[in-house]
């Protein structure tokens, strides 16, 4: 199938290449395509299949088509094949349709022991477990597992799925697969070298496979097993690595069992844990050792968490959770994503211990006294009165968290995380409003001038309802304007000051800065945040970000910031429809744009920054400007690029906002935060040159009203398969977290180092990217718990566990 697919793509590419240069030289492409289509069809279903059926009809009439129509048709075929016929996806689809699940009827066999041992008892060497294999402890040593506790919490890093049966025609060379089939032949023969060999041939309705056994001493056993199965017409299941010899598949020494409905399988039909190994260790032996210890010890492991928390979070018991991660009964999908309640319990615990330690440390450090803002419900109501919309549930929730923080005399240190367009600005504005109402000044810092200007306008308009003066401070202001602004800030005339980095310059002084707001936090360093904070006397701090970046997570883990998540879009928002378009089909885009524009919508057209030289960038941008001006005659087009003066930029932005410009041709200056709700189309040229996160940000510029919006990712036909794969992520989802995940997967683990914590923050099971929500609740619970019980009275097991977990760690020594 793979070959056929590649041949089809090759032929189509050849036909369309260099504007159909070779089109005439290729004889009867219709016949070749029809032949290959019929080979491909058995593997297709759904949309792909109906597309091919339609295409076949066309191909049968190909001879009668005009040359123009032929070309158009072939081009369309090429587009669809490149975008929708990836081998992996087709294969995945086939597997899903054909795979059969084999479920062992055995339960996990867990039985909770009533009588538990104290946690301390588990800090003994595993050798003390009666009946343990005498080589086990040396193996444990190699793995760094010194105590029973270590062994219990040595969680599998992945699982081996021996429950999904792969049909024989879908095997892939090199994979380890579970297969099922009837026995057709059992032969004892000789290898080329004259060694004895047992060959067993299995078949299912899709194909056949040969199982090979080379060790003579097992011949007898297997001959009996297979011939009985053959006589009774029973199927056999085998698990092993797939090899290819010539045209057929083989498995050498697979693990084999006779298939029975509802049977307790031991080797197949189960999901097995896979552990990290050390040099010279074998998986099946380590598995056996760990299994032995878990069976003996896990049921006696005591519940060490407060009962209230276990109840409130509906956590399964710790002993059962330990058991289940080693002997899973959940589905492989859940296990692989670490979504089973048992895995989650262990992740939660890991966070809980860490956060409890942090909370204790925090408690010990003398509590900073900050500002207790007299915020009340009326202020919130007053604020809402002048909003043109009602807040989303998520916005309300986050505001409640902020209000609680602000009321408290401890300085707020909060991060608001929310996808592009989720409405972070209004939440920030509310916080600013509360601070001003309480008699304090607010500083709002944004990473670019365009953004600072935008915030300035928004805040100014909003605060005008209350007669509250808002000022701006940016680097591009004239010295005179700047001086005036500085004075107004110092005298306390400006209650809210919006600005760029200019805000943290030495000269800037406030009368009484009470709240610091930082937008798009990832653009600033920790240092800059501190600098702005130092402009006041322990002001509250609120930072906002659209990017679920590793550093944010790291900061959380260090206990520096509390997190609020806005996980809901304003009502009526429709996901942006996203489509990959090849650059030779620009005319389609042009006519689409004309339609949207004539309906009163606005359009962005974005180019990647050309970095070679200033001149080139200018040229690229202006060329494009002329191109689009020509194409979209009758509509007004504006140009925005990095080489323009600030006033020019602001002017262009203002005109695009007001609708004087309907189209904005731009470099990526507009990437972050720009808000023009009337814009419904984002065209991104050379999309393959952008990173996924950046594309997501750009796309976030549209879809900011209840109108349907679109994003076109323009790229070349000849762009690599990897690039297409990346762009397809955006076609498939508008969820920023998913995009970020895919982004990390593409970029590889090297760049993930940002999430790694030094020392105390090294998590064994938890993954900060995946488990953010769990971290949040564990943190909440831990802080609340420590608040009520700073001595951890009555929780000796928990104390012991923390001592064990954090031993040798300076920062936590004292609490121990
Ligand atoms: P981001 O989170 O990306 O910074 P913004 O704060 O710029 O998003 O908000 C995006 C758009 O949605 C803005 O035009 C804003 O006025 C609007 N908006 C925010 N909250 C709501 C809401 N609750 N209902 C309707 N529109 C909203
Ligand atoms: Mg924003």
UniProtKB/TrEMBL annotation:
SMART domains: DEXDc, HELICc
Domain Helicase ATP-binding: 405-566
Helicase C-terminal domain: residues covered: 585-750
Primary enzyme class: isomerase
Keywords: ATP-binding, DNA damage, DNA recombination, DNA repair, DNA-binding, Helicase, Hydrolase, Isomerase, Nucleotide-binding
Record Gene3D superfamilies: Nucleic acid-binding proteins, P-loop containing nucleotide triphosphate hydrolases
Superkingdom: Bacteria
Matching PROSITE patterns: HELICASE_ATP_BIND_1, HELICASE_CTER
GO biological process terms on file: DNA recombination; DNA repair
EC nos: 5.6.2.4
Keyword Nuclease annotated: no
A GO molecular function held by the record: 3'-5' DNA helicase activity
Keyword Hydrolase listed: yes
Record's catalysed reaction(s): Couples ATP hydrolysis with the unwinding of duplex DNA by translocating in the 3'-5' direction; ATP + H2O = ADP + phosphate + H(+)
Family membership noted in the UniProt record: Belongs to the helicase family. RecG subfamily.
Chain's role: Plays a critical role in recombination and DNA repair. Helps process Holliday junction intermediates to mature products by catalyzing branch migration. Has replication fork regression activity, unwinds stalled or blocked replication forks to make a HJ that can be resolved. Has a DNA unwinding activity characteristic of a DNA helicase with 3'-5' polarity.
Alphabetical list of PANTHER family matching this protein: ATP-DEPENDENT DNA HELICASE HOMOLOG RECG, CHLOROPLASTIC
Protein name (Swiss-Prot/TrEMBL): ATP-dependent DNA helicase RecG
């Amino acid at each position: 199938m793979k070959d056929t697919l590649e041949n089809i793509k090759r032929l189509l590419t050849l036909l369309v290449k260099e504007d159909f240069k070779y089109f005439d030289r290729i004889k009867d492409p219709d016949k070749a395509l029809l032949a290959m289509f019929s080979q491909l069809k058995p593997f297709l279903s759904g949309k792909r299949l109906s597309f091919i059926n339609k295409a076949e009809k066309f191909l049968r009439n190909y001879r009668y088509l005009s040359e123009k129509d032929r070309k158009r048709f072939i081009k369309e075929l090429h587009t669809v094949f490149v975008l929708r016929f990836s081998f992996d996806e087709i294969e995945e689809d086939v597997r899903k349709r054909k795979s059969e699940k084999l479920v062992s009827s055995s339960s996990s066999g867990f039985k909770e022991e009533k009588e538990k041992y104290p946690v301390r008892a588990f800090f003994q060497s595993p050798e003390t477990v009666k009946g343990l294999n005498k080589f086990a402890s040396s193996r444990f040593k190699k793995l760094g597992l010194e105590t029973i506790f270590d062994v219990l919490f040595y969680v599998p890093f992945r699982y081996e799925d021996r429950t999904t049966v792969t049909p024989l025609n879908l095997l892939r060379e090199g994979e380890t697969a579970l297969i099922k089939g009837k026995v057709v032949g059992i032969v004892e023969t000789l290898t080329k070298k004259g060694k004895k060999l047992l060959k067993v041939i299995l078949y299912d309705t899709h194909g056949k496979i040969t199982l090979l056994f080379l060790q003579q001493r097992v011949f007898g056993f297997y001959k009996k097993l297979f011939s009985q199965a053959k006589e009774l017409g029973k199927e056999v299941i085998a698990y092993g690595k797939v090899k290819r010899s010539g045209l057929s598949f083989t498995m050498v020494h697979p693990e084999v069992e006779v298939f029975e409905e509802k049977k307790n399988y031991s080797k197949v039909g189960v999901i097995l844990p896979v552990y990290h190994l050390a040099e010279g260790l074998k998986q099946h032996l380590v598995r056996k050792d760990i299994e032995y210890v878990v069976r003996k010890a896990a049921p006696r492991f005591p519940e060490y968490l407060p009962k209230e928390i276990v109840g409130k979070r509906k956590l399964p018991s710790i002993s059962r959770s330990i058991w289940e991660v080693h002997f899973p009964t959940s589905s492989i999908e859940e296990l692989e994503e670490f979504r089973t309640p048992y895995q989650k319990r262990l992740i939660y615990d890991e966070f809980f211990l860490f956060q409890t330690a942090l909370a204790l440390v925090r408690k010990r450090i003398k509590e900073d006294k900050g500002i207790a803002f007299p915020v009340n419900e009326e202020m919130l109501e007053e604020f809402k009165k002048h909003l043109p919309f009602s807040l989303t549930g998520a916005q309300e929730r986050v505001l409640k968290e902020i209000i609680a923080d602000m009321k408290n005399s401890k300085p707020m240190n909060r991060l608001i995380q929310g996808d592009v367009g989720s409405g972070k600005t209004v939440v920030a504005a509310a916080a600013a409003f509360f601070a001003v109402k309480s008699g304090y000044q607010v500083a709002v810092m944004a990473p670019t001038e365009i953004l600072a200007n935008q915030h300035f306008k928004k805040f100014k308009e909003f605060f005008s309802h209350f007669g509250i003066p808002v000022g701006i401070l940016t680097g591009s202001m004239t010295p005179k304007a700047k001086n005036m602004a500085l004075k107004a800030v110092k005298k306390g005339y400006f209650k809210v000051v919006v600005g760029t980095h200019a805000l943290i310059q030495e000269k800037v002084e406030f009368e009484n800065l009470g709240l610091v707001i930082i937008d798009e936090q990832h653009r600033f360093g920790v240092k800059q945040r501190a600098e702005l904070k130092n402009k006041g006397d322990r002001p509250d701090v609120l930072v906002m970000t659209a990017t679920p970046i590793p550093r944010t997570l790291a900061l959380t883990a260090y206990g520096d910031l509390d997190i609020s998540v806005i996980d809901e879009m304003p009502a009526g928002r429709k996901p942006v429809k996203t489509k990959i378009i090849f650059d030779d089909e620009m005319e389609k885009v042009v006519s689409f744009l004309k339609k949207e524009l004539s309906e009163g919508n606005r359009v962005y057209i974005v180019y990647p920054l050309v970095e070679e030289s200033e001149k080139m960038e200018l040229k690229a941008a202006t060329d494009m400007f002329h191109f689009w001006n020509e194409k979209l005659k009758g509509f007004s087009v504006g140009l925005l690029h990095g080489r323009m003066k600030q006033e020019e930029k602001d002017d262009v932005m203002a005109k695009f906002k007001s609708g004087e410009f309907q189209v904005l041709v731009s470099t990526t200056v507009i990437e972050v935060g720009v808000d023009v709700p009337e814009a419904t189309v984002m065209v991104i040229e050379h999309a393959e040159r952008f990173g996924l996160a950046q594309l997501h940000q750009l796309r976030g510029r549209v879809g900011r009203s209840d109108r349907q919006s679109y994003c076109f990712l323009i790229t070349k036909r000849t762009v690599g398969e990897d690039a297409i794969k990346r762009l397809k992520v955006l076609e498939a989802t508008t969820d920023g977290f998913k995009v970020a995940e895919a982004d990390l997967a593409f970029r590889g683990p090297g760049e993930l180092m940002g999430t790694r914590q030094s020392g105390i923050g090294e998590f064994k099971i938890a993954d900060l990217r995946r488990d953010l929500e769990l971290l949040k609740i564990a943190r909440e619970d831990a802080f609340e718990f420590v608040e009520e019980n700073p001595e951890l009275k009555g929780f000796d097991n928990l104390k012991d566990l923390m001592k064990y977990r954090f031993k040798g760690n300076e920062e936590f020594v004292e609490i121990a």
